[in-house]
Automatic annotation (TrEMBL), chains A, B:
The lineage of its organism: Bacteria, Pseudomonadati, Pseudomonadota, Alphaproteobacteria, Rhodobacterales. Keywords: ATP-binding, Cytochrome c-type biogenesis, Membrane, Nucleotide-binding, Translocase, Transport. GO terms for molecular function: ATP binding; ATP hydrolysis activity; transmembrane transporter activity. It comes from Shimia gijangensis. Transmembrane segments: none annotated. GO terms for biological process: cytochrome complex assembly. SMART domains: AAA. It comes from the Bacteria. PROSITE patterns: ABC_TRANSPORTER_1, ABC_TRANSPORTER_2. Pfam families: ABC_tran. This is Heme exporter protein A. Residues 3-205 form the ABC transporter domain. SUPFAM superfamilies: P-loop containing nucleoside triphosphate hydrolases.
Automatic annotation (TrEMBL), chains C, D:
Keywords: Cell inner membrane, Cell membrane, Cytochrome c-type biogenesis, Membrane, Transmembrane, Transmembrane helix, Transport. The keyword Transferase does not apply. This is Heme exporter protein B. It is found in: Cell inner membrane. It is a multi-pass membrane protein. GO terms for molecular function: heme transmembrane transporter activity. Required for the export of heme to the periplasm for the biogenesis of c-type cytochromes. The chain crosses the membrane at residues 12-37, 43-64, 97-118, 124-150, 157-178, 190-213. Belongs to the CcmB/CycW/HelB family. It comes from Shimia gijangensis. One of its GO terms (cellular component) is plasma membrane. NCBIfam families: ccmB.
UniProtKB/TrEMBL annotation, chain E:
Belongs to the CcmC/CycZ/HelC family. This is Heme exporter protein C. One of its GO terms (biological process) is cytochrome complex assembly. Required for the export of heme to the periplasm for the biogenesis of c-type cytochromes. InterPro entries: Cyt_c_assembly, Cyt_c_biogenesis_CcmC, Cyt_c_biogenesis_CcsA/CcmC. The lineage of its organism: Bacteria, Pseudomonadati, Pseudomonadota, Alphaproteobacteria, Rhodobacterales. Keywords: Cell inner membrane, Cell membrane, Cytochrome c-type biogenesis, Membrane, Transmembrane, Transmembrane helix, Transport. The gene is ccmC. It is found in: Cell inner membrane; Membrane.
Automatic annotation (TrEMBL), chain F:
This is Heme exporter protein D. GO terms for biological process: cytochrome complex assembly; heme transport. It comes from the Bacteria. The keyword Membrane applies. Belongs to the CcmD/CycX/HelD family. Keywords: Cell inner membrane, Cell membrane, Cytochrome c-type biogenesis, Membrane, Transmembrane, Transmembrane helix, Transport. The chain crosses the membrane at residues 12-31. One of its GO terms (cellular component) is plasma membrane. It comes from Shimia gijangensis. It is found in: Cell inner membrane.
Amino acid sequence: MTLTVKNLTISRGGIPVLEGLNFTLAPGKALILRGPNGVGKTTLLRTVAGLQPPVEGDVICGPETIAYAAHSDGLKGTLSVSENLHFWADIFGTKGIQNALDGFDLNSLVDRPAGALSAGQKRRLGLARLLVTGRPVWILDEPTVSLDVASVAMFADAVRAHLSEGGSALIATHIDLGLDAEVLDVGPFRAKPRSGTGGFDGLDESFL
Amino acid sequence: MTLTVKNLTISRGGIPVLEGLNFTLAPGKALILRGPNGVGKTTLLRTVAGLQPPVEGDVICGPETIAYAAHSDGLKGTLSVSENLHFWADIFGTKGIQNALDGFDLNSLVDRPAGALSAGQKRRLGLARLLVTGRPVWILDEPTVSLDVASVAMFADAVRAHLSEGGSALIATHIDLGLDAEVLDVGPFRAKPRSGTGGFDGLDESFL
Amino acid sequence: MIALLIRDMKLAMRAGGGFGLGLSFFLIVTVLVPFGVGPESTLLAKIAPGILWLGALLACLLSLDRIFALDWEDGSLDLLATSPLPMEGVVTVKATAHWLTTGLPLCLASPLFGLLLSLPAEGYQWLVASLVLGTPALSVIGTFGAALTVGLKRGGLLMSLLVLPLYVPTLIFGAEVARRGAEGLATTTPLLMLAGITAGTIALLPFASALVLRVNLR
Amino acid sequence: MIALLIRDMKLAMRAGGGFGLGLSFFLIVTVLVPFGVGPESTLLAKIAPGILWLGALLACLLSLDRIFALDWEDGSLDLLATSPLPMEGVVTVKATAHWLTTGLPLCLASPLFGLLLSLPAEGYQWLVASLVLGTPALSVIGTFGAALTVGLKRGGLLMSLLVLPLYVPTLIFGAEVARRGAEGLATTTPLLMLAGITAGTIALLPFASALVLRVNLR
Amino acid sequence: MGSIWEYANPVKFIRTSEIVLPWVSILATVTLIAGLVWGFFFTPDDYRQGSTVKIIYLHVPAALMAINVWFMMLVTSLVWLIRRHHVSALAAKAAAPVGIIMTLIALVTGAIWGQPMWGTWWAWDPRLTSFLILFLFYLGYIALWEAIDNPDTAADLTAVLCIVGSVFAVLSRYAVNFWNQGLHQGASLSLDKKENVADVFSTPLYVCIAGFVLLFIALVFLRTRTEIHKRRTKALLARERLG
Amino acid sequence: MMPDLGKYGDTVLSAYAVSIVLLVIMVALSIRASRKARAELQKIEGRRNG
Ligand code: HEM
Ligand SMILES: Nc1ncnc2c1ncn2[C@@H]1O[C@H](COP(=O)(O)OP(=O)(O)OP(=O)(O)O)[C@@H](O)[C@H]1O
Ligand SMILES: Nc1ncnc2c1ncn2[C@@H]1O[C@H](COP(=O)(O)OP(=O)(O)OP(=O)(O)O)[C@@H](O)[C@H]1O
Ligand SMILES: [Mg+2]
Ligand SMILES: [Mg+2]
């Protein structure tokens, strides 16, 4: 169940963005990724989730252990909240969505079509999906976007509960979640131009 | 330039969500809207921006004074950053985007297609659009989503500069922006069910 | 308004081809017809004007659903609605951009496709004339349909359903001009009718489209 | 997989009609043909099998672009890719759902539309047979096209362009079966070819589609 | 007070229809059965069309209703857009399925009639063609209602569609006439016999027409009530969820 | 009782059959929908008032 990242270099649009990343994520632990906008957090998470291949290095982790939650939630506006959750439960072969509904206070919204939710309610539903996947390793990209303070606390509780059950979580976020977790600033791993010749020293976000 | 909201009732999907709202927003002032997820902030902002009609009450404000920025940024992924900004500048009949580029540190990204920006960079571009509208009243729906700490500060500076030039801003947000502004919690204005009488006697044009 | 037109044209170009795509669809429909109905050239010549008009209509239709859909999804439409442009202006510009990227290339290329379907020599000028007069109406009507269905997921098919009956008069008169032209008959009446329909839709329909679009943004 | 199939069918239904819409498009194409080529029933009878096949093909095509597009836009596709379902399974389910909502209703309704185009009495059974055998290939090929163009804005037209040439063999043999049937000729050879194409595409194309989809998700 | 617009209030409408509906329903059933029985059992055959002339008692009322229902929808749509009375929008919604069934009956009976008379189920005669187009308009109208969640938005959009559609329906009618001038003499022969329809045929025909009209009225009352109930259910449910 | 329909018997009967079936279906569906809507509304109003 341990997720290990070894000497990883990742690229976006053909350009390396982060390099030399090493970390392990043991069961029961959470790791918070930090870094300025555009440094490559999303790219890193997608690579770890297996959606894109690494340029170099390895992501080692058991098969079918990862649940990924991206910037967008993958909700169907015409399906109700419970239909959306049941669908993912069926896909991941787990039973029951009650747990997920309770965890994110969605009970009063079960029959509402997902399209008629507010931004924060949608996000809560998107996060509730994690609970029905039954997967141990959560990979979360800015999970608290649009959430109010109470919902952020709710989310932190859900993560804590998940960790205490032996799960783990890799979270990219800009805000403080109040979790007791290691923090990894990816800023220092910014990919450097290969040849060290001058002119390139002014490398910034746009790699110019 | 003063925006006045009088006894406003707004509805979403045919159901009143907030009622009895009153506030004024004078030039040079900012007003922060707070409230739990799903209370109706987005609906309120859309009504104030004139995108949907109020159920009751009035929004009083000069014509062509409002610049609205929603959850989504209205960017075209195939156009470059500068093309996106130039487009909005042309639509609003203003000149020059340099100011906007400087304000949100986009100079290094000008020629990048907007589709190849990270979440936070996109948001910065979306906010930069406000500077090219030349409109005095900014209506912002969770403007700092996806932004890192430095960018949030950059945004707060932009708002302060706008206020000092006699503009005003109405901002719905869940986080603390560090602005010196009045805060309005919309929670207490939640619409209450009409007369408790049963049967069809309570039936009115909104079928409640 | 010009800025919007330029942007829309740019977007159409960038999105892999722009002009080319409507045209290629037209081409492919014209090419598939002989596969469907068999290769006899007398038969093809007879149905050529109708098929060419149908092909133009379908090519228009297929590119319609994205007139507003993209701007809706990424939020630009909300922003445009709060901009100084009147909604009628937005709608008109969108229809114009659609015509420039779809209708106009079809008109220019139609003689070539007439060749593929053995259209008689007299027919070409009338085919082009009818398309030039008729395709603007197709774009304007289509914009109305697109405005009606903006924001509906899978709106594409619904839009076709709504738009196609509205296309009937234009199609009938347009194809009639082309057919009569190909057979060497008088074309004045249908040509006048066609011009009338186009003028009428251009003058009135944008108001309906703008109304409908505003309702959809609520 | 069943869950995905059920969800897709549900989505198709909810989105205002589901089954109905592909059908209505087919209906409308068939209705518009006489407006284009004129009302003579002998001419119509002659082109009927080809036009019906073309109509079915276009109805399929029009509903294709949304096979993956919606799931892509709202992020479901990323999530499905990290789920226990193999990508090949996803692709197959998508093709099946597309066929059930488009191809199947077209097969069932085609005799009615044959009526509108004065299809000769002998033609009906062959028309239906050819559609039943051929439309699954259209859905599978279409899914491949949709997988290729997912993530491209305005992918619709580009996809048509890619998919239509791939449709040619199916169309040729399908229409040939229907035409020979209507004229009372032997239909065995084209029928066998049609069945072969369908079997082949169903067996092989899902792998290609899955591959392409995975690349597009990167 | 006493203005006709009062009845456009949902409560008032529910109350009034509660009283009126049973009577209209009974009247409709009686008239319709009487007319059809009279027409089917107690009229002679036509000297040229034989017994097929009996189809007229279904075909013509259905055809008339098909057009009139659309017209009624046009009027209620205008009322909704101008005065924003919810009942009038819901009445249009309630009427559309009735209209499409009427169109379908006219088309099907016509097709069945065409088989012995013209030797074909379908011909691209202008009248038949414009009916087919009307059918498509109904289909699009209903599909649009179904596709939109927000009831007010749906009412607005369908109302505009109905108005624009009406203009285009009329245009199509002219276009179709122009397109297929005099190709089907057979059709005009049998269709233009109206003048010499003898009383033996016309009286039961009028009864049938009255029966169809009454049936339509009863159905629209019933279905509009249904729509109002549904609207209220939806509103209450939504309100409950808001807490 | 049954009138003599001559050689067009099938035609006339099928026309009547189809039309009457369509009419009956429409009426039945309308009534069913009406019952359902009313029952549902009563359930909810009951819940609200009780
Ligand atoms: C599918 C096909 C058909 C459609 C859609 C259709 C449509 C109509 C319509 C709209 C009317 C009433 C219009 C009016 O009163 O001005 C009508 C009337 C009539 N139709 Fe048809 N018709 C069809 C086929 C036929 C056939 C095959 C026959 C018989 C040969 C027929 C005989 C009549 C007669 C006798 C009337 C009443 C006379 C009249 O009002 O002019 N129709 N039909
Ligand atoms: N399609 C693309 N082509 C080229 N470069 C891209 C593309 N998409 C993103 N980039 C660039 O890659 C870098 C990394 O992007 P990524 O989305 O991983 O950043 P991030 O750390 O998630 O930022 P944020 O906090 O803003 O979400 C950014 O500088 C971005 O501009
Ligand atoms: N289309 C719709 N139909 C019915 N109800 C809706 C619809 N869209 C939103 N709602 C409901 O209206 C209420 C107000 O939504 P709104 O988006 O204004 O909330 P918000 O305050 O912006 O919340 P958030 O902080 O989560 O963005 C919510 O309870 C939401 O569930
Ligand atoms: Mg990111
Ligand atoms: Mg909101």
